[in-house]
Amino acid sequence: MMTAMAAAKAYAAAGSGAAPGISGAASGGQDFGDLLKSVMGDAMQASKAAETQIAAQVAGKAELIDVVTAISSAEASLETVMAVRDQVISAYQEIMRMPI
User: Which residues contact 12 (CB under 8 A, 6 or more apart)?
Assistant: First the structure.
């Protein structure tokens, strides 16, 4: 009988190209926590870049198109983070509904 843990390990191994039973971190891959930290860092960097462009535009040192581009980039990053968060919460809720 296939358990949920065995299925998760097989899925992780298939995605990373590693042999079954070897975690992504042990095989040199990036683990999920590091991936989330990286994405959050990128989103924060995009927000700070947008704020910098806004301040530069207020001071008359930046073009409006640069400000709009920076804000659009920050918005896309934030929407991506929120979509990932929603998927993680949905997966957690589905796992919690599984019978023991």
Answer: 18, 23, 24
Residues with Cβ within 8 Å of 77's Cβ and at least 6 positions away in sequence, in order, are 42, 43, 46, 47
Domain ranges (residues) in the chain? 1-29, 31-97
| pLDDT tens-place string over residues 45-61 | 999 999 999 999 999 99
Q: pTM for the full model?
A: 0.63
Report whether 4 contacts 46 (CB < 8 A): no
Which two three-digit tokens encode residue 97? 């509904």
Looking up tokens 């198109």 gives: 65
Give the number of other CB atoms < 10 A from CB of residue 29: 16
CA distance 45 to 10: 35
